[in-house]
Amino acid sequence: MNIIFVSIPIGIVLIGLAIAFFFWAVRSGQYDDLDSPAYSILMDEDREERRRREGKPSETEDPSDRPDQQQLPSEDEDGR
């Protein structure tokens, strides 16, 4: 029976915190645009943007211009 005297005030405080966080989220704009993130996954992105994000050279870029893609001379070219 004594646990009820502890559980009820803790429950009321938790409900009050949940309501306060909900109103904070509404005021800060968390629920302003619910549809755009769902549709953004369906939109096609630019091919160049996808290549840049994946780290691949673009179709118009010369791979030898990139320092991490330059080839080092092999042993055969050194004459050994």
UniProtKB/TrEMBL annotation:
Chain segments carrying region Disordered: 37-80
Keyword Membrane belongs to the record: yes
Keywords, comma-separated and alphabetical: Membrane, Transmembrane, Transmembrane helix
Protein name per UniProt: Cbb3-type cytochrome oxidase assembly protein CcoS
Organism superkingdom: Bacteria
Regions of compositional bias (Basic and acidic residues) in chain numbering: 48-68
Pfam families: FixS (PF03597)
Protein's organism: Natronospira elongata
Positions of transmembrane segments: 6-26
Gene: ccoS
